[in-house]
Amino acid sequence: MPARRETRSETEAFQARLAGRSAAERQRIEAEHRAFIDGEKDDDADFGDAEPAQARAVARA
Question: According to the UniProt entry, which residue ranges have a biased composition of type Low complexity (predicted)?
């Protein structure tokens, strides 16, 4: 699968969703996302059940 390109708005939205998560969780999610962008993985990172409240507030602002 060829590498995928990510837009600036997609990058900003991804970074906003990482806000409020532990360092270990951010590292895991970023590694999964990088593998998806590089074409090594078919599915994007798994953020779990829901976004943290802080990320939702940032995304709405």
Answer: 50-61
Domain tally, the chain = 1
The parent domain of residue 29 ranges over 8-60
Note whether residue 2 is domain-resident. Answer: no
Q: Which helix (H) or strand (E) holds 50?
A: none
Is residue 33 assigned to a domain?
A: yes
For residue range 9-54, what is the model confidence (pLDDT) as tens digits? 999 999 999 998 999 999 999 999 999 999 898 888 888 855 555 5
Q: Taking a C-beta distance cutoff of 8 angstroms, is the pair 23, 29 a contact?
A: no
Contact 39, 2 (CB under 8 A): yes
